């Protein structure tokens, strides 16, 4: 039989895949919750939902990826943080409706399975799951040697969470007079990287250098993993209740205004004060190299990764609770009444950044 007609010769190395599983096993097992049934290696992940714990549980699900931030990870040959980004993208969407993330499954497509690289990626996913309190119950690594370059890969994940039917957060709870509490981002998170990479390339910026205004190499800043807010947002609801915490908006593609408007009902608007926080130095750097402010505010989070609409009288308490948990937070604006109940929601940013 010709050695050309083997799976390995076609670009799929089963042995390498098995070595990758061995390397990642311990990290995955550290994410286990008591509800996980069985272990890594089955055909499906099993999770026992304790129905006695809930009155009227709703399951929530979210699917997302990391996007072109992966291109920077490949360029810098650092693959241990993009897994955290992957988890953040899905679990912080779940918590926006008040759901507790329960478990997650990942999908890694690559041109060639390099066990150490795959293990680094999945270890990052496991780290993110631990931060979110979610179990990593399984996943898939697919080797597509005839479709992707050897060092190329892409990531996706789906997470499932649960929320009581009478505790779902969203536009229906938001009221005129609510305070908009902002939570600081850790960087660009996982959005806007096609624009980031374009600026870096066109401006000839050195990823290993530390530009003026930054405190570390640009590559480190751009690969800073996404802050995971899930446990902090759940803790805030646990402490203050849904009568106080009305909605969360995860600030991803579309920016602060484009995502905050999604949790406002018709007839309401939000006014946010840029002067309540400082524009991150990395965003200013890109603006210095040609990115217009209007584009920054659409493509990047500009320093705010999550916002909460909370009853105004409890805003200071919400800020204090988040700050105590290590999440810098502040009141960034207010929810106001629009001209009529039929007016579509709108978010306005005014002033200038500190």
TrEMBL record:
GO terms for molecular function: ATP binding; phosphoribosylamine-glycine ligase activity; phosphoribosylformylglycinamidine cyclo-ligase activity. Pfam families: AIRS (PF00586), AIRS_C (PF02769). It catalyses: 2-formamido-N(1)-(5-O-phospho-beta-D-ribosyl)acetamidine + ATP = 5-amino-1-(5-phospho-beta-D-ribosyl)imidazole + ADP + phosphate + H(+). Transmembrane segments: none annotated. It comes from the Bacteria. InterPro entries: PurM-like_C_dom, PurM-like_C_sf, PurM-like_N, PurM-like_N_sf, PurM_cligase. Belongs to the AIR synthase family. This is Phosphoribosylformylglycinamidine cyclo-ligase. The gene is purM.
């Amino acid at each position: 039989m010709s050695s050309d007609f083997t799976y390995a010769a076609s670009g799929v190395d089963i042995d390498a895949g098995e070595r990758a599983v061995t390397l990642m096993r311990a990290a995955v097992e550290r994410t286990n919750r008591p509800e996980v049934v069985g272990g890594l290696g089955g055909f499906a992940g099993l999770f026992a939902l304790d129905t006695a714990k809930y009155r009227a549980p709703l399951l929530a699900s979210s699917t997302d990826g990391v996007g072109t931030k992966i291109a920077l990870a490949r360029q810098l040959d650092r693959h241990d943080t993009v897994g955290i980004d992957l988890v953040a993208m899905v679990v912080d969407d779940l918590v926006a409706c008040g759901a507790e993330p329960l478990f997650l499954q990942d999908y890694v497509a690559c041109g060639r399975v390099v066990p150490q690289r795959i293990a680094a990626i999945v270890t990052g996913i496991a780290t993110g799951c631990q931060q979110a309190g979610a179990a990593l119950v399984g996943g898939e690594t697919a080797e597509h040697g005839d479709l992707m370059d050897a060092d190329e890969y892409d990531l996706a994940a789906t997470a499932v969470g649960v929320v009581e039917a009478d505790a779902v957060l969203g536009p229906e709870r938001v009221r005129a007079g609510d305070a908009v509490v902002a939570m600081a981002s850790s960087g660009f998170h996982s959005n806007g990287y096609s624009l980031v990479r374009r600026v870096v390339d066109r401006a000839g910026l050195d990823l290993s250098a530390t530009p003026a205004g930054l405190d570390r190499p640009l590559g480190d800043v751009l690969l800073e993993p996404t802050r995971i807010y899930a446990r902090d947002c759940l803790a805030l609801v646990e402490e203050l209740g849904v009568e106080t915490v009305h909605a969360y908006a995860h600030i991803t593609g579309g920016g602060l205004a484009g995502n905050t408007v999604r949790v406002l009902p018709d007839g309401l608007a939000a006014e946010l004060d840029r002067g309540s926080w400082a524009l991150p130095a990395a965003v200013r750097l890109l603006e210095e190299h040609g990115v217009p402010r209007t584009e920054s505010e659409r493509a990047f989070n500009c320093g705010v990764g999550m916002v909460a609409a909370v009853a105004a009288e409890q805003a200071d308490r919400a800020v204090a609770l988040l700050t105590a948990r290590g999440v810098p937070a502040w009141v960034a604006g207010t929810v106001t009444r629009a001209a009529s109940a039929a007016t579509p929601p709108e978010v306005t940013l005014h002033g200038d950044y500190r």
